[in-house]
Specification:
five-stranded antiparallel sheet, 257 residues, five-stranded parallel sheet
Length: 257
């Protein structure tokens, strides 16, 4: 079996390569960063792909989009602790390695991947795994990933992942991004439906926050709360939205067994 390792960190690629060298059934067909992944996968047609999620320029999900669903091998996602990605993997029963992982966890994932490769080569048994991955990619593709906003005489691309919080302004919203603000023409209710629900939560009828920016929760009167974001901004969490907000903190950080 051939494996390809895609990660922007050379030490991370080396760690996976050394572990694979202990397995007599798998050889490393190549390794690279996300930028070169499409060409490498097409050229080497690997059976197993170790794919880092968070990479600059081209992330793991974009690699799969570029390769195309019909050409994707058995995938093991590799990620640092990333609540929204881990939750998505668990919901879709997709295998992943959470950095830093130990040898035992790695070889359990590898064993599952090899079983899927064998089943695929026999011409059966891999349909559910392929369907889960395809469903995961379809679900992700429906979410808003970036916005093109007008700033005077030019347009600026704003990544959804960079947004700290969103504020309703009549028929517009204001995207607050790293100390800057951008006006975007879309009602907040419509935008809330297009954002990743495991990353963004509507905490008030006039506000949406990126859950990873929340640092403190302060109690107010009558069951309301005040959220303190990483930049010090305070956003009200209404009592009626508390359950939805707290749901995002109930995701287990444990790895799949």
């Amino acid at each position: 079996m051939r494996a390809v390792i895609v990660d922007d960190e050379p030490l991370a690629r080396e760690s996976i390569r050394r572990l694979l060298e202990e397995d007599g059934e798998v050889t490393v067909a190549g390794e690279c960063t996300g930028v070169d992944a499409q060409a490498l996968v097409i050229r080497t047609t690997p059976d197993i792909l170790f794919l880092d999620v968070q990479m600059p320029d081209v992330d793991g999900f974009e690699v799969l989009d570029r390769v195309g669903a019909g050409s994707v091998p058995v995938v093991i996602f590799v990620t640092a602790y990333d609540r929204y990605a881990v939750r998505a993997f668990e919901v879709h029963a997709i295998d992943y390695l959470l950095k830093p992982f130990d040898d035992a966890r790695f070889f359990r994932s590898l064993a599952r991947a090899k079983d899927l490769v064998r089943a695929r080569k026999r011409g059966g048994g891999d349909d559910r795994a392929s369907e889960r991955l395809a469903d995961f990619l379809r679900t992700r593709s429906t979410r808003a990933q970036r916005f093109l906003v007008r700033v005077r005489d030019r347009s600026v691309v704003v990544s959804a992942a960079d947004i700290d919080w969103i504020e309703a302004t009549d028929y517009y919203v204001t995207l607050h991004v790293g100390g800057k603000s951008y006006l975007h023409r879309e009602p907040i209710a419509t935008l809330a439906e297009r954002l990743d629900p495991d990353r963004f939560v509507r905490v008030h009828r006039s506000a949406i926050v990126n859950i990873d920016r929340v640092r403190e929760v302060h109690q107010l009167f009558r069951g309301d709360r005040s959220l303190v974001l990483a930049d010090g901004t305070q956003v009200k969490l209404s009592r009626s939205r508390r359950e939805e907000f707290e749901r995002l903190f109930a995701v287990s950080g444990s790895q799949q067994e």
